[in-house]
Amino acid sequence: MSFLSKRSVLEELERAKASKTKQWRDNLPTWCPGCGHFTGLHGLYEAVEKLKIPQKDFVVVSGIGCSGRFPFFIKGFGLHSLHGRALPMATGIKVANPALTVVVVGGDGDGVGIGGGHFPHAARSNFNLTYILLDNSIYGLTKGQISPTSPMGMKSGTSPYGNIARPINPTTLALAYGATFVARVFSRERDIVSDIITKAVQHKGFSFVHDLSPCVVFNKLVTYNSWNNMVEELPAEYDPQDRSKALALAESADPIYLGLFLQENRPSFDELSNRIKDELAQTA
Ligand SMILES: Cc1ncc(C[n+]2csc(CCOP(=O)(O)OP(=O)(O)O)c2C)c(N)n1
Ligand code: SF4
């Protein structure tokens, strides 16, 4: 069943027809009106359009979840993979063909729940790909169970007396795991989301974008309004080059900082493996 009302379908179609990114639009998104995931998708449309990435060289890989529907809505190649397995699929694609631009998209359940074991290895290996984690602090597709980023005390079908486990902070994880580009954005701010996703796709190495992306249907605690009251841009003088300072700011729960926490130049996995191939070829 689609949650899109007739009116919002028509509005979305009009917007798509008028958009400068229309050549990137594929099937009409089936998300509920107001879902935060629309902003991430719009950001990716704008990024690939701005960077003039040829569709034949573009791949989007997702796991399972509402967020996992991404590949159906954007042109280029797409792989709607298995729950929690988008990162290993994407790293395999990148190793097989390093010339491709590979973007991975998934939810908080997908990325730091079932798929949490893959995140450190993709980040520390500095694979040259972009990972957008759409965090709504709930399992959206399966209708509202708590996720690893749900706050303590949150009630749901699987936590009727309130969540008793401490939430995971995906931004601090990415920093601790060694990602070379780490940013946090909020789906209320379309232009900033587009700008950060564009920079993330341009970055050479593993880029991570943590998008606070509300589920307007099943999460009644973590919402646009609740996040709106907590978020704040990183201080103007902040320089995104120091991992320990980035970690301290990313850890803050009040305010929740938004912006680019870290960007570092470190040879990516494909650069290092090419160097080895070249050295081997010279000694052969
Ligand atoms: C191996 C496996 N376990 C469980 C599921 C059921 N399942 C599908 S999506 C999902 C969670 C989705 O939540 P999230 O990743 O946060 O994405 P969202 O839907 O909120 O965008 C679960 C548990 C599955 N498809 N496969
Ligand atoms: S994440 Fe929530 S609001 Fe978004 S499509 Fe899924 S159920 Fe709907």
What does this structure look like?
With 284 residues, the protein is of the alpha/beta class. It has one domain (6-283): Rossmann fold. Helices cover 37% and strands 16% of the residues. It is built from eleven helices and eight strands. It has an eight-stranded mixed β-sheet with strand order 2-1-3-4-6-5-8-7, sandwiched between helices. Helix 8 links the parallel strand 5 and strand 6 (207-212). The termini are far apart. The mean pLDDT is 95. It binds thiamine diphosphate and iron/sulfur cluster. Thiamine diphosphate (TPP) binds next to helix 5.
Features:
globular; alpha/beta; 16% strand; single chain; binds thiamine diphosphate; binds iron/sulfur cluster; 284 residues; eight-stranded mixed beta sheet; 37% helix
Shape-level CATH architecture:
3-Layer(aba) Sandwich
Largest beta-sheet characterization: 8 strands, mixed
Shape call: globular
Distance between the amino and carboxyl termini: 60 Å
Question: How much strand content do the residues show?
Answer: 15-25%
